[in-house]
Amino acid sequence: MTGTLVLVRHGQSEWNLKNLFTGWRDPALTEKGVEEAKAGGVALKDYGLTDFDIAFTSDLSRAQHTLKLILEQTGQTGLETIRDQALNERDYGDLSGLNKDDAREKWGEEQVHIWRRSYDVPPPGGESLKDTGARVWPYYMMEILPRVLAGQKVLVAAHGNSLRALVMVLDRLSREEILKLNLATGVPMVYRLKADSTVASKEVLGDMSAAH
């Protein structure tokens, strides 16, 4: 039997709360985000996952803070952790830091919707979901997947779009299906993989209806 892969989107950030495009900018978690991360850790503890072999996170503090809070709950504060910008949120380019309503006024609702929800149309100076996947997928294949297939329990704390790119592959979702998927903040997704790297089982330890 192979190992276990757990994916968690970071808790609510200050810019999530303010309805701003965040991307590679680095706002902190809100109080709610801290509580979401702690709740994710409690969910993993209640599920019996308190013995991870390694953790991965992005180069951004909101994901790193989320991981720290989760590991405090599971009693693994000293766990080996690898940080890499390959797991960063999608780069929103010229939209970064803008209020989403202001962006709609500037470029029009339809254009902003295309940038946010198309698969392969990037915002000016930024990345599409396809572009994000182009850096996430190779990193997963080279650094994360081999550990899971070797029987390790691996925890990944990252972002809505970097994780959507992973979920697209793991759950074998089409371009259309992945565009409809939102990941709730702080909610762990527990995957067990087969030896051929496909998914044997998936469990969501929380309320995915809280996605936004």
From TrEMBL:
<comment type="similarity">
    <text>Belongs to the phosphoglycerate mutase family. BPG-dependent PGAM subfamily.</text>
</comment>
<comment type="subunit">
    <text>Homodimer.</text>
</comment>
<feature type="binding site">
    <location>
        <begin position="9"/>
        <end position="16"/>
    </location>
    <ligand>
        <name>substrate</name>
    </ligand>
</feature>
<dbReference type="InterPro" id="IPR013078">
    <property type="entry name" value="His_Pase_superF_clade-1"/>
</dbReference>
<feature type="binding site">
    <location>
        <position position="62"/>
    </location>
    <ligand>
        <name>substrate</name>
    </ligand>
</feature>
<feature type="site" description="Transition state stabilizer">
    <location>
        <position position="159"/>
    </location>
</feature>
<dbReference type="GO" id="GO:0006096">
    <property type="term" value="P:glycolytic process"/>
</dbReference>
<comment type="pathway">
    <text>Carbohydrate degradation; glycolysis; pyruvate from D-glyceraldehyde 3-phosphate: step 3/5.</text>
</comment>
<feature type="binding site">
    <location>
        <begin position="116"/>
        <end position="117"/>
    </location>
    <ligand>
        <name>substrate</name>
    </ligand>
</feature>
<keyword id="KW-0312">Gluconeogenesis</keyword>
<feature type="binding site">
    <location>
        <begin position="89"/>
        <end position="92"/>
    </location>
    <ligand>
        <name>substrate</name>
    </ligand>
</feature>
<feature type="binding site">
    <location>
        <begin position="22"/>
        <end position="23"/>
    </location>
    <ligand>
        <name>substrate</name>
    </ligand>
</feature>
<keyword id="KW-0413">Isomerase</keyword>
<feature type="binding site">
    <location>
        <begin position="160"/>
        <end position="161"/>
    </location>
    <ligand>
        <name>substrate</name>
    </ligand>
</feature>
<feature type="active site" description="Tele-phosphohistidine intermediate">
    <location>
        <position position="10"/>
    </location>
</feature>
<comment type="function">
    <text>Catalyzes the interconversion of 2-phosphoglycerate and 3-phosphoglycerate.</text>
</comment>
<dbReference type="GO" id="GO:0006094">
    <property type="term" value="P:gluconeogenesis"/>
</dbReference>
<dbReference type="Pfam" id="PF00300">
    <property type="entry name" value="His_Phos_1"/>
</dbReference>
<dbReference type="InterPro" id="IPR029033">
    <property type="entry name" value="His_PPase_superfam"/>
</dbReference>
<feature type="binding site">
    <location>
        <position position="100"/>
    </location>
    <ligand>
        <name>substrate</name>
    </ligand>
</feature>
<dbReference type="InterPro" id="IPR001345">
    <property type="entry name" value="PG/BPGM_mutase_AS"/>
</dbReference>
<dbReference type="InterPro" id="IPR005952">
    <property type="entry name" value="Phosphogly_mut1"/>
</dbReference>
<protein>
    <recommendedName>
        <fullName>2,3-bisphosphoglycerate-dependent phosphoglycerate mutase</fullName>
        <ecNumber>5.4.2.11</ecNumber>
    </recommendedName>
</protein>
<dbReference type="GO" id="GO:0004619">
    <property type="term" value="F:phosphoglycerate mutase activity"/>
</dbReference>
<keyword id="KW-0324">Glycolysis</keyword>
<feature type="active site" description="Proton donor/acceptor">
    <location>
        <position position="89"/>
    </location>
</feature>
